[in-house]
Amino acid sequence: MSVVIIGGGHAGLQVADSLRSGGYTKPVIIIEDEPELPYQRPPLSKDYLAASGNPEPLPLRTPSFYQDKDIDLRAGVRATDIDRDASTVTLSDGSVLNYEHLVLATGARNRELACAGATLEGVRGLKTLEDARALHSALATARNVVVVGAGFIGLEFAAAAHAHGCSVTVLEFAPRPMGRALTPTTAEWFARKHQESGIQLRLNEGIDHFDVGPDGRVGAAVSTAGTTYPADLVVVGIGVVPNDDIAARAGLQTQNGILVESTLRTSDPSILAIGDCASYPSVHTGAVTRLESVQNAAAHGRHAAQTILGTLTNYTDVPWFWSTQGKLRLQMAGIAQADDDVVVIGNPGAAAFSVLCYRDGQLVAVESVNAPADHMAARKLLAAGRGPDPAEAAVAGFSLKEYARAALLAAA
Amino acid sequence: MPTITYVQPSGQSDTVTVEDNTSLMRAAVANNVNGIVGECGGQAMCATCHVYVRPEFADALPDISEDEEEMLDCTTAERTDASRLGCQVRVSTELDGIVVDIPEGQV
Q1: In total, how many domains does chain A have?
Q2: Both A120 and A97 in a single domain?
Q3: Chain B neighbors of A57, CB-CB under 8 A
Q4: CB distance A64–B32 less than 8 Å?
Q5: Which pick of A144, A247, A397, B69 has the fewest CB atoms within 10 Å?
Q6: Bridge partners of residue A202, in order along the sequence
Q7: A380 contacts B74? CB cut-off 8 A
C-alpha cells in the first residue's frame, strides 16, 4: 500500500514532503514525465531569462532529499492509465503501481495556436526548463520578438526580451492585458507602462498567421488587423489547458480540470487532485475555481497530505500570485473580477499603489504594484475575512498595513 | 568556497559549503536544509526563507532593500533585528562562516 503521485511539480513534491514530515511511513512514489530533477518554474520566465541570468535551474529539492525522505522519484516516465477497480496506475515503461491513495498533480499544458505557421521553427511556448533554455539562448541573437498573448507569461517574457535590447511587439486579441486575472484599473495601468517602456503592446489585435522567412524559420507575424510584424523569435503565451485526460479516462468527474471537493478528493475518495489541474470549491470566489500558481500548488500539496493522513478539513487558503515584469512587481491576493468596485490607494504616478477590490461592499482582492506591505496586509485581512470599508480606504493617506495591524490586533 | 551554518530551532545544525555568491535560500534548498522553503524561487515575494543572522555577521550583510523590508514585516515567525530573507543575502568571502538560525515556521 502506498501513495502514488502523478506529477513532480510544486504540488506533487509538496505532497510527498508534507506526508513525510507528517509522519507517513509507507512508500511514496512520484511519477514525473520530464526527465529532469523537479525544478522551480517561476524564475523560468523571469530571472532565468535575464542577460545576466543564472542559467542553472533551481531544483525544488536536492537529489539527497529523495533518498533521505525515502521518496521514489520516477523521472522521465509517464502515467498512462488509472484502473480504479484494481487501484493501479500503468506507466509508459510498462510497470504497474498499486496505490492506496493516488494524487493527481498533473498540472497544465500550454494552449497551442492552431494558425498557419504556428509550427515554424522560432515559434515556441514557455513552460519547461527546456523551453527556457532555448529562449535564453535565442534572446542573445534575436532582434524582432513577437509575443502572442499579453498574459503573465507573455508580458514577463516581453519585458525580458526588451531588456535584452530586442524590439518587442505583443499581440493581444482582448482589449486589456492580463484581463482574465486583473481589474481593468490595474490592467490598463500595466498597458500604459509597457507601452511607455518601448514595448509595442497591440490590443484588440490577435494573431492571424506566421510567414516563413528566407531561412525557413519564422519571418513575420501577421495580425488579425492585417499588419505584418517582422519576427525572428515568437513566444506564444495564450494560456494553459489542465491535464485532466487521464482522470476523465478513469471516469472521474472533470470540468475545466479535475473536480474535487473541499478536502481536495475527487469523486473517488482514494484519489485526490491538486494544483493547476484541480477545480475546487473556493470560499474566496464562492465558485468552483481552478488556479494556476505556485501558492495554490504548494498549499494544495500541504492540504492533500493532511487529507491522506486522516485530517479532513476544508481547504480555505487565501490565493495569492505574483508577476515581475521588468521593474514592475505585481502581487495579488484574493481573486479579482473585472466588475469589482475598486478603491486605489498609494500613488500610481509613482508606480507604487494598490487596487482594493470590493464585491457587495466586502473586500475580496487586492492588487499591489511595488507595494509589498499592502500585499502582505491584504493576505492577512482576507484570511481573517476582514477589510476596511470602501469609504475608509478612500481617505487620503490611508495605510492598509496600519489598518491590518489595528484590525487584527483587535480581533486577537 | 564559503561555508554557511544553519541552526535549527532544535539546536541541530548543518554546515554546507557553497559556490561564491550563492544566496542563503538557494544554498539551503540545494543542501536539503529543513525549514527554508523558498516557495517563490528567490524573488522576495513569499517570505518563506526567513532566517535570523547571528549578530557577529551583521556588519558584512548587504543592506535591506525596500521590498525585503516590507516582506520581512510579514514573516510567520516573529521579526527581530536579526531577520533577513535568505534569498536576498548572497554569501561571498566576507560572509564566509556565517551562522544563521532558522525560525520555527515559514508558512
Answers
A1: 3
A2: no
A3: none
A4: yes
A5: A397
A6: A171
A7: yes
Amino acid at B55: P
Nearest CB to A62: which of B31, B45, B74? B31
- CA B82 to chain centroid, in Å, comes to 10
By the 8 A CB rule, do A375 and A355 touch?
no
Q: Does B70 touch chain A (CB under 8 A)?
A: yes
Q: What average pLDDT does range A126-131 have in this prediction? A: 93
Give the structural domain span for A134.
Answer: 112-236
Q: Residue A379: closest CA among chain B residues belongs to which residue?
A: B74
CB within 8 Å: A47 and B44: no
CA pair distance B37, A61, nearest whole angstrom = 10
How do residues A61-98 score in pLDDT, each as one tens digit?
888 889 999 999 999 999 999 999 999 999 999 999 99
CATH topology of domain B3-101: Ubiquitin-like (UB roll) (3.10.20)
Contact in structure between B18 and B79 (CB atoms under 8 Å): no
Whether ipTM exceeds 0.85: no
Q: Which residues of A touch B73 (CB under 8 A)?
A: 373, 376, 401
CB contact under 8 Å between A294 and B40, yes or no, is: yes
Residue A55: pLDDT band with limits 50, 70, 90: low
